[in-house]
Amino acid sequence: MSPFVSVxxxxxxxxxxxxxxxxxxxxxxxVALFCLLAGTGRAQSSLPTEDVFQRFSNxxxxxxxxxxxxxxxxxxxxxxxxxxxxxxxxxxxxVSELVHHPDRYSARALESEExxxxxxxxxxxxxxxxxxxxxxxxxxxxxxxxxxxPLQGLRLYSLGHPLDLGLNIVEGTYNGFLQxxxxxxxxxxxSLNPGMSGGPxxxxxxxxxxxxxxSAGEQVSFLVxxxxxxxxxxxxxxxxxxxxxxxxxxxxDQILDxxxxxxxxxxxxxxxxxxxxxxxxPTRPASFFNCWGDSTRETNIPYxxxxxxxxxxxxxxxxxxxxxxxxxxxxxxxxxxxxxRFQFATFYTQDFAETYYSMGGGEDEVTPFRCNTxxxxxxxxxxxxxxxxxxxxxxxxxxxAVLKAAVVGKPLTGLETAxxxxxxxxxxxxxxxxWYLGAFSWVE
Amino acid sequence: MGRIVxxxxxxxxxRLKSRSRLxxxxxxxxxxxxxxxxxxxxxxxxxxxxxxxxxxxxxxAEDLGSVNGLRLSGSPDKLPRVELRSGLKVKIGETxxxxxxxxxxxxxxxxxxxxxxxxxxxxxxxxxxLGIIAVSxxxxxxxxxxxxxxxxxxxxxxxxxxxxxxxxxxWAGVWAFTNRLLTHRFDFARHLAFAYxxxxxAVVVEPAYEYFRFFSNSQSSLLAxxxxxxxxxxxxxxxxxxxxxxxxxxxxxWSLGVAAAAFGAARLMQYSGESHFSSQISFSMPLxxxxxxxxxxxxxxxxxxxxxxxxxxxDALAKEE
Lengths: 444, 321
Description:
The complex is a heterodimer of chains A (444) and B (321). Chain A is an alpha+beta fold. Chain A folds into 2 domains: 31-236, Beta Barrel (Thrombin, subunit H), CATH 2.40.10.120; 254-442, Protein Transport Mog1p, Chain A, CATH 3.40.1000. Chain A is 18% helix and 37% strand. Chain A has helices spanning 18-24, 48-56, 96-100, 226-236, 247-267, 341-354, 426-437; strands at 60-67, 72-81, 87-90, 105-112, 115-125, 130-135, 155-160, 168-177, 186-189, 200-202, 208-217, 220-225, 273-276, 279-282, 290-295, 304-311, 316-317, 323-324, 327-335, 370-378, 381-391, 399-408, 413-424, 441-442. Chain A is elongated. Chain A starts with 17 loop residues before the first helix and ends with a strand. By secondary structure, chain B is α+β, with helices and mostly antiparallel strands. Chain B has a 5-stranded antiparallel beta sheet with strand order 2-1-10-9-7, with no helix packed on it. In chain B, strand 5 (49-53) and strand 6 form a beta hairpin. The longest helix of chain B is centred in the middle third of the chain and has 30 residues, at 154-183. Chain B starts with a strand and ends with a helix. Chains A and B meet through helix 6, strand 20, strand 21, strand 22 and helix 7 of A and strand 11 and helix 7 of B. Strand 20 (370-378) of chain A pairs parallel with strand 11 (298-299) of chain B, so a sheet runs across the interface.
């Protein structure tokens, strides 16, 4: 996966172009510096983009993360100054190595290739992919952050260092928030590329609207709303602020807290149901869920399948290989009029064994899954049930949980279902399983 | 002495070279043609040793001043005289001598057909063998039919049966050829019928095992491996029984050895597969065509209570480095 987080639905896919992934894998965002006219007057130029660049580019920095042993940058990203004391806002994923391996990695801000300043990581907001750092020295120009409520179609200018090619400015438009996400994220129609993460997206007047965070390609990109950065900055500039130690504990608490709010929203009511065959099944449990369906229509195979799945575009970047904060589920109805019972049983067994899903994550980040198997009677249906759990190695109390089940005892009819939850507490996982399976029923 | 005694001459590997009936004593032994018993061994002197009968009837071997002397088998010490008890081995040069009395026990003869009873005996009737082959072929085709769920084509299903037939022919052919080498008989139809019987057994046992898993939700593969090992042992044992040149205990030892080796290799491969980290969830669970009323079930709460153990398991895993 590109370190520049891709769109949620494709977040676990790898980038197929090896050259792109090699460069992209280590590039975040940078800042070029024209220290002119900072914050003065409203641009009236007939060339607004050029003008925006001239006026604001000196507030943006390139952030280099260095592995101490190698004495060279291991990844780069972008950031921008937000206070007169040298506070810098960037993405959590740009500096996540400093959180997970504080003894091995350090970061610095570069206003130009010759002018760099060490950065100290103060605090993170992992669920909104933000971090605040402080530079030891800087030239003095900064953006003042304030919540902003722009209109759809507003022209935005994104600044950053795509592929470490130097500071770029990219034009695009504000297109509101993502519809299928619990947490607000801005849909930015502009071309963000790896390396621009952490850079600001601003109006022509220099007001920060969001922070570059991810891209789905083809001019579809995403920004973190500035309001989250305002909140993070407020905490970390308070007079009694002390940087959490270790920051990993902060990450753990934030993930669990976020999942608590997310699942509370989902689980507060029984889910609405949809009918597939004679089954009534849970569907779109909250307005921010998005459901898709499909069915087989081939005439030359002796069985039919109908798929129904629901997910959200939410995600929480934990490390380069591990994405958390997702909840999604799917149902598959299998029926046949042509197969006999034994043939259908073989088909059902095979299909159930073959549908699997990788949750991502490396061996040093998560444990292997451990599963419990049982035959569960619930709502007059009999489920062959598998419940699997794994833990985040460095985040105590944070688990990924998967429920897979298949209804048995219905002649020539099968129903497979699965519920995936990542970054949850064990108690939340089991209450979600109860909520989920409780919504199943059979209508004659 | 009224008894009859034999002198056996063995080479250094213990194989019998000659056996002489000793009628009168003394008996001279050596490489020269003047001896009563001539030994063809270049480490034996022309006049090497003689056997005397004492007044009390005991037999004594006496060294005649040979180059390499007279020794007890397995000992380097040269001895001038050795008393010969029945069965005692003495050594001259590289040759072993042994005196055996006429009442020494010998094992019972090995039967020409090693296992002349039971099923394998009946397989000697060709019509029965051919019948078993035909029925088993039908069973493999039926099994393939019941496991097909793509578009049904009889040529594919028959193809599975024919593929199995070809494999069986090759397998039985190897055994029949071995049979021919050892006993001058092929017994091809018996080998084929027996191999098919075992395949039929496996075709029947496998679904039984699947149903067992369906009822019990067992995720352990130990039983499958043990069953597979047992079937393999039976298979090898049966073929070896048709070839009549091995003693029963040797057949058993070979069969168990082959089965144990296969069992061990399978477990080892499984272990190396399991120890590899994966972020995917993989499991298999048979879903059978049976009414749900037959199944022992638990309610969801009990299932989740039972799953609480998983939390402790992964917490323990997380602490490992």
